[in-house]
Amino acid sequence: MSADVARRIALGAQGFADPRPASSPTRRHLQRVLSRVRLLQLDSVNVAVRAHYMPVFSRLGGYEPSLVDEAAWSHSSRKPRLLVEYWAHEASLVPVEDWPLFHSGAKRPGWWRNYTSTVEREPQLVEDILAVVKELGPVGAGAIEKALAGGGPRNKDHWGWNWSEVKKVCEYLFGSGALTTGSRRGFERLYDLTERVLPPEVLARRVPAEEGARELVTRAATALGVATEPDLRDYYRLAPARSQQAVRELVEAGVLEPVQVQGWSAPAYRHTAARVPRAITGRALLCPFDPLIWERARTERIFDFHYRIEIYVPEAKRVHGYYVFPFLLDGRLVGRVDLKADRAAGILRVQSAHSEPDTDHGRVAVELAAELRHMADWLRLDRVQVTPRGDLAPALKAVVR
After folding, report:
1. Is the pLDDT of residue 160 over 80?
2. Which of 57, 70, 58, 62 lies closest to 27, judged by CA?
3. Is 156 a residue whose pLDDT tops 60?
4. Hey, how many other C-beta atoms are within 10 angstroms of the C-beta on 146?
5. Which residue in 1, 55, 50, 8 sits closest to 224, CA to CA?
6. Distance CA 130, CA 136 (A)
7. Where does the pLDDT of residue 154 fall: very low under 50, low under 70, confident under 90, or very high at 90 and above?
C-alpha cells in the first residue's frame, strides 16, 4: 500500500472525506461524527475552545455546542444520553454503549488506583461520599466536602480529611465506576451515582477482558482505518500484550488485514471495512487533542508533519506557540496557527502562523483566513487579528477580513 493511499484511508476513517452539512448540523450529524472518531477527549485548557468541542467543528463546521452538551450531560426520553465520561484515551466522552468495555478488564488500571490506600484507610469516607452524592447529586467535590464538614452524613466533630482526600476518593470512585459525571457546571465535574446516569441494560452487560480488548481494538481500527499495532493500542491506552493478542485474533477473524505501507517501518493493519476515498478535499483546523493527530509519531508518519504541544515549554523556547492548531487542506497538513480566543475583546487572535515546506503561501493564506473567519463566527467573536509572527503571517494578515 502506498503512503498516499494510507493517508486517504486514515482521513476517510476520521470523517474528512464527508462533506460538511449544507444546513445547521443536527444530532444526526453529531452521531455520524461519533460513529467515526468513537470518543472526544476532554481537556481543561480553554485558551481557544474546549478540546471536546473542536473535533466536531473540524468535521461539521459551525454547530451549536449544546449538541455536544446535551449528548454528554443530559437525558430525556426524546433525546437519550449518547455519551458518558470515562478514562479512554485520556479523560474522554465515550458512547454510552461502550461503558462495559472499559470495565471488562481489557484496560490497565488507571492512575486513580494510586488512591487505593486512601480508600482502604478510610472506608467510612467512601460510604459518606456515596451517601452525599445519593442525596445531593449531581454534585461537585467542593460541595461534597462542605456537606461532610457541615453536618452531612458525617458530623463535623469527626471531620479529619482535607479537600485533596475527598477529591482523591471521588476520583477513585469515578475510575472504578461507582460514580460518573452526571453533568457539568462550566468545566466542573458534578458527580452522580452511575446507576442514575446509565441505562440498566448497559450496567448489566458483563464483558470478558479478551472480548473487551477485541471490541476496543476494532473500534480503534474503525477510527484509524489503517494503523500499526501501537497506534491501535494507543487509541484506548491498552496494555501491549492485551492489544497484541486482540490484533492476532481480529486478523484470524477477518476484521483486520495485515498490510505493508511504503515508508512505514512497522507492520500495519487495515480494517477490512475501511474505504479508500478517491480524494480528500476541504479544509479544517485541528486542535492538539484531535484524534487524527494526537499520536504524534503517527502524525509524522502519515503527514510528514512534526508536531509537539508546547504548553509546558517556556515561552522563550517555543517554536510555534502555546496552543497550536495544524491546518488541514485537501488532505495535507500545510501549516499551523497559535490561536487564542480573546472573548472580552471579541477577537480570535492568531499569535503566530507558520507554513510547511513547499506550500503555496497565497492559496494556504486564503483558505486559512476563511476557516479562521468561520471559527470566529462559531465562537461568536467579531474579528480575526493576525500577529506578524511566523513565515505565513504576512500573507495571512493581507487576506484576513
Report:
1. no
2. 70
3. no
4. 15
5. 8
6. 10
7. very low
